[in-house]
Write a structure and sequence with these properties.
Helix 3 (53-66) packs antiparallel against helix 11 (276-283), helix 4 (95-109) crosses helix 5 (116-131) and helix 15 packs across helix 16 (410-420). The protein is globular, with a radius of gyration of 21 Å. The protein is 40% helix and 16% strand. It has helices spanning 6-16, 26-35, 53-66, 95-109, 116-131, 167-170, 174-181, 200-209, 244-249, 252-267, 276-283, 308-320, 339-346, 366-374, 387-398, 410-420, and strands at 43-48, 71-74, 86-88, 91-92, 135-139, 156-159, 190-193, 212-215, 220-223, 230-233, 236-239, 292-294, 299-302, 327-331, 352-355, 380-381, 403-407. An eight-stranded mixed sheet has the order 4-3-2-5-1-6-7-8, sandwiched between helices. Strands 12-13-17-14-15-16 form a six-stranded mixed sheet. Strands 9-10-11 form a three-stranded antiparallel sheet. By secondary structure, it is of the alpha/beta class. The protein has two domains: 6-283, UDP-N-acetylmuramoyl-L-alanine:D-glutamate ligase (3-Layer(aba) Sandwich), CATH 3.40.1190; 292-420, Alpha-Beta Complex (Protein-Tyrosine Phosphatase, Chain A).
């Protein structure tokens, strides 16, 4: 084995390919076939989309586990530890398992210079085969057509939403981006579309492939009404018996994502096995830092919103859940993001901005972010030297009855979460 520890493997993978992102299936297909990963592959669900794909993938895996299937779940990026990316039956892979998987990929690749994400994707597939999973649920990393998870043919695909993000790689409008995301669909196989008005490019691709299309609002929906909620598929319904707290958690994007996850189960042919208890078990699953509330005074809200669409969802949630005090936001964003629409969506909800530096090469320095935030009408900016200071500054700014929002990237939430809870496991970087 080349290395002894997980961190050594991850550090080395960062240097293996000259570019962090190099969208192509050529390399991963060669190595996957050397490992035999596409031969007799388990049932495969591939989930793509601009936002919500991690939530849908997590819910699908939880629903399948509740139905007694052995399930592998691959998601990215991680929040605190790399191990979160690869889980079997809800349990993250151990360091030793990941090291063994990386060693297998390393041996099979020869001199092929895999990217960090490609290496991890192949390792996840190797572990899922070793564990004998019945179903592997794979979240797309970037785009779809040329993303590493697309080396497997999806038995069911899901596209949660299409909006502007990663334009440098995917295109400058929804139609171009939709065309890239539609690449995870396969001829004659079903796809769940998780928005009511998907781009024409997605629909054209689906119909051109002869895919079976199920569309939110047209073929399926989740209704979190006062009677306890309904899951609706065509004319069929399942009363869910949701309590008020459960219904609240299914508002907005979370409800649309939950409906899409349930649609995937239908498209897998499991609709007759779905009961209210199974559905509720699946809907209770969610990855962390998606509108995650931490009790306290002030209250803390963690959300990995990092593009215009997710910022609009965050803003809508804040407007629908006001607090008596002020709202302060700890924020850091990547320099390549289109920041104007992100902050415009939130400027009416946030009174105090606390920009921070995070340890990411792509991150915009707080010194450059501060003047951008200062130009927002009705807002003020307070500088903080590090996440620990930012926590104190934001808490004081929000005050009793207020709320501190942490958003902008996974690494923003990671930095603050680790500082909020010193007992939390330290992140394995990458």
């Amino acid at each position: 084995m080349r290395f002894d520890t997980l961190q050594q493997w991850l550090d080395w993978q960062e240097t293996l390919h000259p570019r962090k992102i190099d969208l192509s299936l050529d390399r991963v297909r060669v190595v996957a076939d050397a490992l035999g990963l596409r031969e007799r592959a388990p049932v495969t669900v591939v989930v793509g989309g601009t936002n919500g794909k991690g939530t849908v993938a997590t819910m699908v895996a939880a629903l399948l586990k509740a139905l007694d299937f052995r399930v592998g779940l691959y998601t990215s990026p991680h929040l605190l530890r790399y191990n979160e990316r690869v889980a079997v039956d809800g349990i993250p892979a151990s360091d030793s398992d990941l090291c063994r998987a990386f060693a297998a990929v390393d041996m099979a690749r020869g001199t092929c210079p895999l990217t960090y994400f490609e290496f991890g994707t192949l390792a996840a597939g190797w572990l899922f085969r070793e564990r004998g999973v019945d179903v592997q649920v794979l979240e797309v990393g970037l785009g779809g057509r040329l993303d590493a998870v697309n080396l497997w043919d999806a038995d069911v695909a899901a596209i949660t939403s299409v909006d502007l993000d990663h334009q440098a790689w995917l295109g400058d409008d929804r139609e171009q981006i939709g065309r890239e995301k539609a690449g995870i669909m396969r001829a004659g196989r079903p796809v769940a579309l998780g928005e009511e008005t998907p781009p024409a490019s997605v629909l054209d691709a689906a119909f051109g492939l002869g895919a079976t299309v199920s569309r939110l609002g047209l073929d399926y929906r989740l209704v979190p009404d006062d009677a306890g909620g309904l899951w609706c598929w065509g004319d069929a319904t399942i009363p869910l018996g949701l309590d008020p707290g459960e219904r609240e958690r299914l508002e907005g994007a979370r409800g649309r994502n939950a409906a899409t996850a349930l649609a995937v189960l239908h498209l897998l042919g499991l609709q007759r096995r779905l009961t209210a208890d199974i559905v509720r078990a699946g809907l209770a699953a969610a990855p962390p830092a998606r509108l995650q509330r931490l009790p306290g005074n002030p209250e803390w809200l963690l959300d990995v919103a990092h593009n215009p669409q997710s910022a609009r969802e965050l803003s809508g949630w804040l407007a629908g859940h006001p607090v008596s005090g002020a709202v302060a936001a700890i924020v850091a964003v990547m320099a390549d993001k289109e920041r104007g629409p992100i902050f415009a969506a939130l400027q009416g909800q946030v009174k105090v901005w606390v920009p921070i530096d995070i340890p990411a090469a792509r991150a915009l320095p707080a010194s450059a972010l501060s003047p951008e935030l200062a130009r927002l009408p009705g807002s003020r900016v307070v500088a903080a030297g590090d996440p620990v200071e930012a926590i104190a500054v934001a808490s004081a700014a929000a005050g009793p009855g207020g709320r501190v929002v942490v958003f902008g990237s996974f690494m923003t939430v990671q930095a603050v979460l680790e500082s909020l809870d010193p007992a939390a496991p330290q992140a394995v970087t990458g």
